[in-house]
Amino acid sequence: MAETVAAFVEEWFRGCGAVDPDDILGSTGWEGDDADEFIDGFSERFCVDLGGFVDVFHYDPDEPPMGRFTVLGPDGQKLERIPLTLAMLEAAARDGRWAYPYPPHEVRTSRVLGVAIWGLFIVMACLAVIELGRLML
Q: Which of 43, 65, 102, 107 has the most C-beta neighbours closer than 10 Å?
């Protein structure tokens, strides 16, 4: 099973440079839809039930970063990202389900960055329209 999972990862990330088996998504820089598609493809290929998978521990599921997720422990401390490893994928493929033992947690979302990006986009668009109008005079 290990060779089959490793071959799947190698095929999926072909052309992305070196993939670290101890931090697959971190070494490729994949987040959002790209990471979701990889996980879904893995689940489909190896018939893995992802009911226990908590994406925010491994990557930011928003793309572009319209909101950043913070994972907090029971006492409010920020929990670090958990690298998605080849060993995790192999265990899930072998067991047919995602059974990683995540620590107790709460997920919080911040939309401030997203609002700032959209606000900047709107201001830039308005300035472009004004400048275009000025040039047409």
A: 43
Q: Residue 108 has which token pair? A: 């919080």
pLDDT digit string (tens) for the chain, length 137 residues: 778 998 899 998 988 788 999 999 889 888 888 889 999 999 999 999 999 998 887 887 776 555 567 767 788 777 778 899 999 999 999 999 999 998 787 776 665 555 566 666 677 777 777 877 777 76
Residue in 91, 71, 94, 93 with CA at minimum distance from that of residue 82: 71
Question: Is 13 within 8 Å of 7 (Cβ atoms)?
Answer: no
- Per the DSSP assignment, residues forming a β-bridge with 110 are 68
Could you identify the residue written with the tokens 């089959």?
4
d(CA 51, CA 56): 14
Q: Quote the CA–CA distance of 68 and 66 in Å, as a whole number.
A: 7
- Read off the pTM: 0.71
Q: Is 15 left (phi over 0), alpha (psi -120 to 50) or beta?
A: left
